[in-house]
Amino acid sequence: MDWMTVLVRFALYVVLMLVFGLPLFQLHALRKPERSSVLAKKFANLAVALAVVGIILSTISMVLMVKAMSGAADFSAIEEHMIEMMLTETSFGMAWCLRIAMLVLFVVAGLFVSRAHTLRLCILSLAGAVALATLSWGGHGAMDEGVRGELHLAADIIHLLAAGAWVGALAVFVLMLVWRYGDGPADIALLSRTLNGFALMGTVIVGSLLITGAINYWLIVGPTFAGLLSSQYGQLLIAKLFLFALMLALAAANRYRLSPLLERAHISGEHREAITALQKSLLFETACAFLILVLVAWFGTLGPMTE
């Protein structure tokens, strides 16, 4: 097991999902005047910093891929023509170039499009979406050709974007609570409104993950469950599904129990207990999401159903 590759893959998943998910959720949940608030500026600055980290991680991932594909004994043995060949003659390399371009656009727009807040969020969301989508060419999504390959890539991209939207929303909620943005009545009202407003978006996200997840399983493994328990790939997939089910349960609790509790607490003014319960639930849900991304980074390096 190449743990360096797994670690970089995991970090890329987390960073690029946040790069996409943070501005997308602001675009979805914040009203126009709120997009120029101090809170929105904090999220924008964080997203720009993450985009820079994404460029660094992408560079490391390219070096690791060149080393693996060339069979070089160590990094010092990598020659310039190997990198050039990877960048210009492989789909992974071309996707990598597109990712870097989108991340640079993200940083430029985040830093210099400062007055048109809605336009900036649109640019950031689009650039982040494309950057995240390029990760599909580094996993099982690029294993097929023809119509089957196009279907696999499309399903993989939608799966990534749905996951990125969920991770971004979780990050927004957690950071609002961690940054103590929740003590005043206006803060509680915003938190309550965005939580309730996430219901429809959350339903679309979960539906997209279920459908594309099933398509990906069928394209990678086939219409069979044989080998799920005996192969490492299958065991990791089962662990991922268990964590996903746990996330669904926590999201349902947030939607149907904690969000109404927060809304009632906002009206009564006694919101500390509701905030604490919500914070614990969201942190647990976020931890599950991170564990899922660790598993995805791991079994993305494995052949399906291999011992």
Descriptive notes:
- The chain is mainly alpha-helical and 307 residues long.
- It has two domains: 1-138, no CATH class; 146-307.
- Helices cover 79% and strands 0% of the residues.
- It contains nine helices and no strands.
- It has helices at residues 3-29, 38-70, 80-89, 91-112, 117-133, 146-178, 185-220, 232-268, 272-299.
- Helix 2 (38-70) runs antiparallel to helix 4, helix 4 (91-112) packs antiparallel against helix 5 (117-133) and helix 8 (232-268) packs antiparallel against helix 9.
Characteristic terms for this protein:
globular; about 300 residues; mainly alpha; 2 domains
How are the secondary structure elements laid out?
Blueprint: H1 3-29, H2 38-70, H3 80-89, H4 91-112, H5 117-133, H6 146-178, H7 185-220, H8 232-268, H9 272-299
